[in-house]
Write a structure and sequence with these properties.
The protein is an alpha/beta fold. It contains 11 helices and 17 strands.
């Protein structure tokens, strides 16, 4: 009995093509080709694109020498010596001609506009730690994309064990991971994958707390919370803990909020581990300095409004001898200032900025608990922001954006996500 797909055509035979050094012809240079070309180039294929016109991205690939672009219409004979072909023009008749030549030449061909008209189909593809996942769902591209995404999410979270005996989970050492601004969905894919492999997790209060619930029961969790202006774990103790646990042969994750190198003292921990001979992997994080304003519809730059953005630490006052910031120069800039750890001393920061050149009515946005359910947004100006923060009871952690961008209206938000409807074609 012959197996059939959802649309009644026979089930395809899944395989992987080794295309290194082999000629591949792509007829068409629109958005479908733009999606397919990177993987073909990445496979080492000698790619020729045939099309009178191309998208800027395809043209850039040709200019960079990644592929050859023949700027003309398709002609019979273009598939000579090809191993694989993709027909993805906007003209069904041209795609049919390409598929017909491919059949005569015994060249496997994907026809993007009509899967049954070709001799091969493209699965929904994803990658994870050296694994390449391909899913076919019988001509239902949304289903194949959804299953692919679910499998990748399971692999990234550790819910699916990839059985990689050489993976980083078996190596002693430290991974310094930026957890992002707070929402657990904003940690990077690699960060989440390494966190799932941890034997020990050293975390603090700004790291995404929900991620700890996903850890295996035998994972040791060490709280190194640094509560602003209150109880703090000594940095030397944190460094020593990372080194000690790694020397015990364990894989240690130092999970921090935001990006560990943006006022996160992450590099101090890297230096301490390096000096002790402990290997360190650094996984950058989405910094709250830019992500929190973005989620609250506050762009830190905007055409015609701000051509510069400066991120400043507010952990010491402007007059403190330990301050490394030239506040007078900062006040003369016309762009955006993003102030972190500045809630307690906001009156001093606002005063020094207005004293040295910033307008008193400069817009200010104060964003508390950014990306979390408890997020609050306070709009103010430099001359009143200190009083407004006190009146609203704003508490750290909060990101303060100073500049004309803080007065811009909210950006329009999309209501849905697009799915690659060309998969399985």
């Amino acid at each position: 009995m012959r197996a059939e797909q959802h649309d009644g055509s026979p089930d395809p035979y899944l395989t992987g093509l080794l295309l290194t050094g082999r000629r591949v012809v792509v007829v068409g240079a629109g958005t479908v080709a733009q999606r397919r070309l990177p993987r073909l180039v990445g496979a080492g294929a000698v790619v020729e694109v045939i099309a009178p016109q191309a998208t800027p991205s395809v043209e850039a690939m040709a200019d960079a020498g990644e592929l050859t672009w023949s700027r003309r219409p398709y002609q019979t004979g273009d598939l000579a010596d090809a191993w694989f072909a993709v027909a993805c023009t906007s003209e069904p008749s041209v795609n049919a001609e390409v598929a017909a030549e491919a059949a005569v030449s015994r060249v496997f061909c994907v026809r993007a506009d009509q899967a049954a008209g070709g001799s091969a189909v493209t699965p929904a593809v994803g990658e994870h730690a050296g694994l390449r996942i391909g899913v076919l769902a019988g001509g239902r591209p949304r289903r194949s994309a959804a299953v692919r995404d679910a499998v990748l999410a399971g692999l990234s979270s550790g819910a699916i064990d990839d059985q990689d005996e050489t993976a980083e989970q078996h190596a002693a050492g430290v991974a310094l991971i930026g957890g992002g601004p707070g929402d657990p969905d904003l940690i990077t894919v690699r960060g989440r994958r390494l966190l799932a492999r941890a034997d020990v997790v050293v975390t603090d209060r700004l790291a995404p707390r929900e991620l700890l619930e996903e850890l295996a029961p035998d994972v040791e969790v060490i709280d190194a919370s640094k509560i602003p202006y209150g109880r703090a774990a000594n940095q030397e103790v944190i460094n020593a803990t990372l080194i000690e646990r790694a020397r015990q042969g364990r894989f240690v994750v130092r999970l921090k909020g935001g990006d560990p190198f943006v006022f996160g003292r992450g590099f101090e921990e890297v230096l301490a581990c390096a000096e002790a001979g402990v290997p360190v992997t650094v996984v950058p994080g989405v910094t709250s300095a830019f992500a929190v304003p973005a989620v609250a519809d506050v762009p830190v730059t905007h055409r015609g409004v701000a051509h510069e953005v400066v991120v400043v630490s507010g952990h010491v006052a402007p007059t403190d001898d330990r301050s490394l910031t030239d506040w007078q120069a900062l006040a003369r800039l016309r762009g955006t200032i993003v102030l972190l750890m500045g809630v307690e001393r906001i009156e001093q920061f606002a005063s020094v900025l207005t004293e040295h050149g910033r307008r008193a009515d400069t817009p200010v946005a104060v964003l508390q608990d950014g990306t979390l359910r408890s997020q609050r947004v306070l709009r103010s100006t430099l001359d009143t922001v200190a009083a407004d923060i006190a009146s609203a009871g704003v508490r750290p952690p909060a990101v303060i954006v100073i500049g004309d961008v803080a007065a811009l209206g909210p950006a329009p938000r999309p209501t849905s996500f697009e799915v690659d409807a060309e998969s399985e074609a």
